[in-house]
Amino acid sequence: MQSSTQSLDTQCRSDFPVLKRRVRDDKALVYLDNAATTQKPIQVIDAITNYYKNHNSNIHRAVHALAEESTEAFEATRSKIAKFLNIAHSEEIIFVRGTTEAINLIAYAWGRDNVQKGDIIVTTEYEHHSNIVPWQVLTQETGAELRYVDIDDNGELMLEQLDEHLATGKVKLVAVSHVSNVLGTITDIQKVIKKCKDAGAKILIDGAQAVPHMKVDIGNLGCDFYAFSAHKMLGPTGVGVLWARKELLENMKPFQCGGDMIREVHKQETTWNDLPYKFEAGTPNVADVICFAAAIDYLTEIGMDNVRNHEIELTKYALEKMSKVKGLVIYGPNDTKKQGGVISFNFKDVHPHDVATIIDKNGVAIRSGHHCAQVLMEKLDVAATNRASFYIYNTKEEVNTLIDSLEQVAKVFKL
Ligand code: C6P
Fold first, then answer.
1. Which of 96, 306, 327, 401 has its CA 20 to 30 A from that of 241?
2. Is 223 a catalytic residue?
């Protein structure tokens, strides 16, 4: 990374080899699909190569040198995450495959023993399927009820509905995104947590679109469960984190059985390992957990406030320019105080895939589709949207290319 007097994108862009790619008839790649997954800096790519070249070994088992080195590096990532998110007890950090697996772990290991007929689970209209379907399955199996907090016309949660649900006294769990992956809406998480605590309900936060983009202080949030994925914050795919309060984890049964999660096995019975290993069955994703540490180092060096400020600047710039493109409808708050670096939009009567295909010819990569949020699509009364999402390496010039490309679309469809 270069000097900090330069803009963030200038400081870090050259660390990302893929951003030098030319695509589609030699166009410069304009990667605006960061909410799906971010690109990886050379530091992360080198960390994985270094691990396989020099250290590869299973962990927590053998006593030889490589096993010791790998175990130490794996556990060092856990400690680094604890520091990054202000978590006092690193044994509360469970490595999983991603946000989806983290939420499923809670739905199975906590849900099956704590939710029953007559209970209510509350989620919201702007959740990713990963924070809806596990609760549908759980409530269908147990006879509990699944309720929603709706969104208003600005794409913000109608929290008075949460009050109504909590007032029943039957809510066991509220499961909510910290930041919506489609609208970019930032949930007033402190307010939601306070309401849940006052009502005695547990609270799970899907932080997949928050931890990569802003400072998150899990230690002081006061929630019960928090989930996020490494691949959305410069890290590798196949690694995610579930954080949960120790006493909850201690009282939960294991999610999967075998390998590291075991203390003693006899013919008819088994005892479980201590936290966090009780929830880390089998050989974990050692290489990717270890190289995730390089991603955290990279973000720490930048500073999460700088990450957020850069996204605010780009999003504000993009929203202003997009509001002038003919026929373009923008969903969500349209206000960077309440919105992360995500903008969803449609051209009236033009299918989002057509928009994405046309602008891809200019090298502009956005996502089109339902974004794994079909409940939200139903609410917006659309089958799909286009979505541009920004990260540390994106530039105002790239936003200009997006806008020029959208103007081309408007011309093609005579809007
Ligand atoms: N959203 C997107 O393009 P996994 O796949 O387990 O790492 O993350 C799932 C997930 C859960 N919650 C939120 C809010 C998310 O945004 C995602 C992943 C990607 O929006 C892929 S669908």
1. 306
2. no
Work out the pLDDT band at 151, boundaries 50, 70, 90: very high
Q: Where are the domains of the chain?
A: 8-31+303-412, 47-300
CATH class held by domain 47-300: alpha beta
Placement of tokens 């919201």 in the chain:
124
Helix or strand run (H / E) with residue 123: strand 120-124
Angle between helices 286-302 and 304-322 (to 10 degrees): 80
Instruction: Give the helix/strand (H/E) hosting 289.
Output: helix 286-302
Q: Residues 6 or more apart from 77 whose CB is under 8 A from it?
A: 289, 290, 292, 293, 296
- Whether the CB-CB separation of 212 and 187 falls below 8 Å is answered with no
Report the C-alpha gap between 350 and 385 in whole angstroms: 10
Quick check: CB of 368 below 6 Å from ligand 1? no
User: Residue 180 CA: which ligand 1 atom is closest?
Assistant: 14
Catalytic residue among 196, 223, 291, 372: 372
Instruction: Give burial (CB, 10 Å; 0-12/13-18/19+) of 281.
Output: middle
User: Helix, strand or coil for residue 5?
Assistant: coil
- Please write the tens of the pLDDT for every residue from 260-287: 899 999 999 999 999 999 999 999 999 9
Q: CATH second-level architecture of 8-31+303-412? A: Alpha-Beta Complex (3.90)
Tokens 């978590």, located at residue: 87
303/246 Cα distance (integer angstroms):
28
**pTM to 2 decimals?**
0.98
